[in-house]
């Protein structure tokens, strides 16, 4: 696609927009030329924005009959070489699990934005939550790894959507970008990066040397790509398949090799995938480990607490999956307690506890109902934790 | 157009169009799916379609294995969702020809909503929906097409549900090309599949096939010949039907009134999604 056209479609360099729109902007900058989706609060504005932008730059927007079909269309389009994205919220994300697994199994690059709302079921459609963190990890059936990013601002929603596309292309796997109803609908200042500030990654392409084996890999463990229509006559199946792509669903050996490779191609490159932000890492007794919109409140509270003499540090997770357990383990060796505020009834606290492995106290601070944590409640929790440690 | 010479024999057809590594097929003796594949290959050959530019898409079930047997790009997707994937392929690259193999359970049961909306959008693709009145791969459970009273492993006392007329659905949604055939007569379906592939917009070709293993034997039709005979006795060509209803005797009309009509049920022109989208982009593109 014409880069100048994309930039023109996005308009002013500095804008005051909401998180949903920022995801759409990020997608366009990343080169997304295909979007399939279904309306759902609070994610609808992503689709609306894509329906405005994509025709302007010659891309394709298609509103499907449901989220199952949206995910299917994404995979089909991606195999023609398109860069694809969809957006949804909890109920729609539940419907996407089937074809999300297909995308993992068939190593299809695509980006799924989930603007989370309170569940279970229809729950609180207009309210933010972080209740799908574990569904993201294990929602589709079978053994698999997943990549997931969690921005904490409007600017970061744009920036990380580009990163999501890059990771998805680099590792040929679906990448999840999770925000929530608050971030999705909140407006903030957004600066659109210039072309020379952008780093874009494309999927590894088949170089035309020798016979194309669509699922054979080198040390990167990522196969090279040849789109449908390029004459290689590729067969893609969700069944266990060999390097040629042909079904071999009764072979224990081929299944073991394939599914372990799909996991290893992500796990072996954790250093390239995992992102986080640290505050006062070398100078604290208590740590807050958090992510998403909650991290914004926490960041403010860290300064308040330190001014009151509580030595607090903070680890903000940006990459949620694969989980940065080495980083969390390192923090647990230096602090006496870790506070985990989450907008759910305890999801990321489980891998945190596993990484901490009993080295320090791990204290929950869960809030549901659609409202974000107040600074006071986090500060109070820190003061109580401080008392317990004394 | 293909640079290959036009094959003249079935053996040549096999060598040109089939993925040898996938042989033999999974199909049972007497299954009609081999016939459907055969007719499709003859149709492709008649059109001299460049196979490099065709993607065969399918869902899950016996009929959905067909996509893997053709030596072309293929996508064997999830149960019922073939049309969603096919829509993505076609919308993202309208230059590709998309042919979908699906079954009655896959296409009209679990995939019914996708069928409905893909027709409504008039996506430019050819859907060959193979109807054997049963879920064959899982061993013979009742399908949305199983006749009333039909016996299956999940309707052991007879089916109480009304079956679905898939072509009627496609006609109601204004698909530009709708046809229904049995496997008994090879030449009309070959011609019809070729028409469907050449048609811009959504073409539905319903193929009625025998499933001796999971349906026939259980329903008093022992062996493939009995099922073929049943089709001969219970279907009527659309042209014959119209002729008899206009010129036939009352007895002749009474005899065919309740038979299933086979033939080209609609052949018209309607702008496809891809054409309409391309026009829109032409209008609004910066």
From TrEMBL, chain A:
Judged by the first EC level, this protein's enzyme class is oxidoreductase
- Membrane-crossing ranges are none
SUPFAM superfamilies from the xrefs? Thiamin diphosphate-binding fold (THDP-binding) (SSF52518), TK C-terminal domain-like (SSF52922)
Q: Which CDD domains does this UniProt record tie to the protein?
A: TPP_PYR_PFOR_IOR-alpha_like (cd07034)
Q: Which InterPro entries does the entry link to?
A: 2-oxoacid_oxidoreductase, PFOR_II, Pyrv_Fd/Flavodoxin_OxRdtase_N, THDP-binding, Transketo_C/PFOR_II
Coiled coil: is it a keyword of this entry? no
Which stretches make up the Pyruvate flavodoxin/ferredoxin oxidoreductase pyrimidine binding domain? 26-260
**Keyword annotations:** Oxidoreductase
Entry's EC annotation: 1.2.7.3
GO MF, one example: 2-oxoglutarate synthase activity
Does the record's keyword annotation contain Translocase? Answer: no
Domain Pyruvate:ferredoxin oxidoreductase core, by residue range, is: 285-378
Name of the protein in its database record: 2-oxoglutarate synthase subunit alpha
User: What's the source species for this entry?
Assistant: Candidatus Viridilinea mediisalina
UniProtKB/TrEMBL annotation, chain B:
**Entry's Gene3D superfamilies?**
3.40.50.970
Q: Does the keyword Oxidoreductase apply?
A: yes
Per the record, the domain of life is Bacteria
Question: What range does the record give for the signal peptide?
Answer: none
Q: The Thiamine pyrophosphate enzyme TPP-binding domain covers which part of the protein?
A: 60-206
Keyword terms, alphabetized: Oxidoreductase
Keyword Oxidoreductase assigned to the entry: answer is: yes
Its GO biological process annotations read: cellular respiration
Spell out the Pfam families in the cross-references. Answer: TPP_enzyme_C
Q: Which CDD domains match?
A: TPP_OGFOR
Please provide, alphabetically and separated by semicolons, the GO molecular function terms listed in this UniProt record: oxidoreductase activity, acting on the aldehyde or oxo group of donors, iron-sulfur protein as acceptor; thiamine pyrophosphate binding
Q: Which PANTHER family match?
A: 2-OXOGLUTARATE OXIDOREDUCTASE SUBUNIT KORB-RELATED, 2-OXOGLUTARATE SYNTHASE SUBUNIT KORB
Q: What is this protein called?
A: 2-oxoglutarate synthase
Source organism per entry reads: Candidatus Viridilinea mediisalina
């Amino acid at each position: 696609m014409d880069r100048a056209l994309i930039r023109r479609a996005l308009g002013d360099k500095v804008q005051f927009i909401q998180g949903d729109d920022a995801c759409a902007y990020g997608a366009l900058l990343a080169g997304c030329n295909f979007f399939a989706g279904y309306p759902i609060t609070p994610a609808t504005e992503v689709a609306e924005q894509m329906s405005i932008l994509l025709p302007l730059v010659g891309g394709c927007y298609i509103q499907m009959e449901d989220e199952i079909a949206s995910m299917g269309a994404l995979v089909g389009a991606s195999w023609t070489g398109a860069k694809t994205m969809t957006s949804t919220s909890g109920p729609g994300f539940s419907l996407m699990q089937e074809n999300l697994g297909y995308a993992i199994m068939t190593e299809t690059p695509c980006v799924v934005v989930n603007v989370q709302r309170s569940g279970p079921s229809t729950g609180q459609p207009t309210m933010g939550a972080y209740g799908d963190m574990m569904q993201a990890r294990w929602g589709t059936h079978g053994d698999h790894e997943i990549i997931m990013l969690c921005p904490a601002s409007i600017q970061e929603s744009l920036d990380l959507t580009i990163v999501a596309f890059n990771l998805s292309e680099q590792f040929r796997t679906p990448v999840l970008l999770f925000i929530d109803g608050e971030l999705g609908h909140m407006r903030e200042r957004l600066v659109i990066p210039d072309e020379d500030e952008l780093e874009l990654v494309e999927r590894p392409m088949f170089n035309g040397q020798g016979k194309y084996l669509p699922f054979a890999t080198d040390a990167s463990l990522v196969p090279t790509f040849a789109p449908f229509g390029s004459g290689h006559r590729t067969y893609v199946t969700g069944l266990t398949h060999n390097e040629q792509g042909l079904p071999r669903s009764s072979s224990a050996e081929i299944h073991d090799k394939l599914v372990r490779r799909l996991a290893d191609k992500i796990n072996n490159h954790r250093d390239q995938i995992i992102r986080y932000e640290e505050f006062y890492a070398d100078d604290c007794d208590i740590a807050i480990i958090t992510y998403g919109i909650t991290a914004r409140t926490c960041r403010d509270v860290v300064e308040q607490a330190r001014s009151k003499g509580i030595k607090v540090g903070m680890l903000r997770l940006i990459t949620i999956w694969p989980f940065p357990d080495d980083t969390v383990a390192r923090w647990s060796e230096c602090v006496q307690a870790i506070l985990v505020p989450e907008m759910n009834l305890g999801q990321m606290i489980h891998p945190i506890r596993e990484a901490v492995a009993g080295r320090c106290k791990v204290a929950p601070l869960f809030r549901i109902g659609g409202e974000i944590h107040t600074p006071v409640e986090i500060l109070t929790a820190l003061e109580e934790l401080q008392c317990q440690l004394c | 157009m293909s640079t290959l010479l036009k094959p003249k024999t079935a053996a040549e057809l096999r060598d040109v169009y089939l993925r040898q590594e996938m042989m033999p097929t999974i199909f049972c003796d007497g299954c009609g799916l081999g016939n459907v594949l055969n007719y499709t290959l003859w149709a492709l050959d008649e059109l001299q379609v460049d196979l490099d530019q065709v993607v065969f898409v399918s869902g899950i079930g016996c009929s959905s294995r067909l996509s893997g047997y053709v030596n072309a790009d293929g996508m064997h997707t999830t149960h019922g969702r073939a049309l969603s994937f096919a829509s993505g392929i076609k919308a993202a690259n309208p230059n590709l020809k998309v042919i979908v193999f699906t079954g009655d359970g896959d296409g009209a049961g679990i995939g019914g909503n996708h069928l409905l909306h893909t027709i409504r959008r008039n996506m430019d693709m050819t859907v060959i929906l193979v109807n054997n009145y049963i879920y064959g791969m899982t061993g013979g459970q009742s399908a949305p097409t199983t006749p009333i009273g039909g016996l299956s492993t999940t309707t052991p006392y007879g089916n109480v549900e009304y079956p679905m007329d898939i072509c009627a659905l496609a006609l109601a949604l204004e698909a530009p090309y709708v046809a229904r055939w049995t496997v008994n007569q090879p030449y009309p379906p070959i011609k019809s599949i070729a028409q469907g592939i050449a048609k811009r917009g959504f073409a539905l070709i319903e193929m009625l096939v025998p499933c001796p293993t999971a349906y026939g034997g259980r329903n008093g039709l022992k062996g493939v010949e009995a099922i073929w005979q049943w089709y001969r006795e219970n279907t009527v060509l659309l042209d014959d039907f119209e002729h008899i209803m206009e010129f036939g005797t009352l007895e002749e009309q009474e005899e065919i009134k309740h038979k299933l009509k086979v033939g080209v049920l609609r052949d018209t022109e309607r702008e496809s999604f891809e054409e309409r989208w391309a026009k829109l982009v032409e209008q609004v593109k910066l």
